[in-house]
Design brief:
elongated; seven-stranded mixed beta sheet; 10 helices; Helicase, Ruva Protein, domain 3; alpha/beta; 9 strands; Rossmann fold
Length: about 260
């Protein structure tokens, strides 16, 4: 019996109803599939039954890699690496469908890494089917003027359409986590706001949300050096708080920042 490692944020999904729901979200047959953190291979087995063209899994835990090798032999490609250090674009030239019961402690880091490394033309994935702690999922889906809205909402919704599939009870996992989870489905947007560098959007949102309860006057002036022209052009009230500006406004602010920097 494999003992889940708390240090790696391991909570294995064991509920068959949920596992079956996940593999039926999108077409798997003859597709290239990439699974993040397969654990003992519960979801992997069901994906394999759907006859993917190629199935890649990435697992950091050496002990679990041994279990997966024993269970699946050469029928899948097992990558024994850290997902945060791995370059998914080198895996294949074909687009991937990504499944992941992401470790809670690094789930936002994984998603932000992918978003910030997306280029403006060709995405390396067809879709993402990912599990998050419910509170994180709520932040990803949050609308402006709500308390959950923030940097993660703005970054995630920039190039991706996101739908919540369902919430998942703690009893569906081993060991049982202290929080509920949510399953989200991400698809690349056909049209999105064009920016030169994702890092610029990351920077703008970081500065604005550094003091999320305070008015945006100070961060605005820090970035734009008291430039009233941009404020008037975008019709921004500097007495508002960061959560009161919608997605589009943050993208436009980033574009103005890029134009000022040449």
């Amino acid at each position: 019996m494999i003992k889940p490692k708390k240090s790696l944020g391991q909570n294995f999904l064991i509920d068959n109803n949920i596992l079956n729901k996940i593999v039926n979200i999108t077409k798997i047959e003859n597709q290239n599939i990439f699974e993040i953190g397969p654990g003992t291979g519960n979801l992997t087995s069901l994906i394999k039954e759907k006859n993917p063209k190629k199935l890649y899994v990435i697992e950091k835990d050496n002990e679990l890699v041994s279990v997966l090798n024993e269970k699946f032999k050469d029928s899948i490609t097992i990558i024994n690496e850290d997902i945060l250090k791995f370059n998914e674009k080198k895996l294949t030239k074909d687009k991937l469908i990504v499944f992941g019961n992401l470790p809670y402690n690094i789930s936002t880091e994984i998603l932000c890494k992918w978003i910030l490394n997306l280029d403006n033309k060709n995405f390396w994935f067809e879709s993402l089917i990912l599990m998050f702690q419910k509170e994180v999922a709520d932040r990803i889906l949050a609308k402006f003027n709500t308390s959950s809205y923030g940097r993660l909402s703005i970054l995630a919704n920039w190039k991706l359409d996101i739908v919540k599939i369902c919430d998942i009870n703690q009893n569906c996992f081993f060991p049982k986590p202290k929080v509920e989870s949510s399953l989200l489905f991400f698809k690349p947007k056909l049209k999105f706001f064009k920016l030169k560098k994702a890092k610029n959007l990351e920077k703008i949102t970081r500065i604005f949300f550094n003091h999320r309860r305070k008015m945006i006057k100070k961060p605005y002036n820090q970035i734009f050096n008291n430039n009233n022209e941009i404020k008037n052009k975008l019709k921004i009230d500097l007495n508002l708080r960061p959560q009161n500006l919608n997605l589009e406004t943050y993208y436009k602010l980033t574009k103005e920042y890029e134009q000022l920097r040449g």
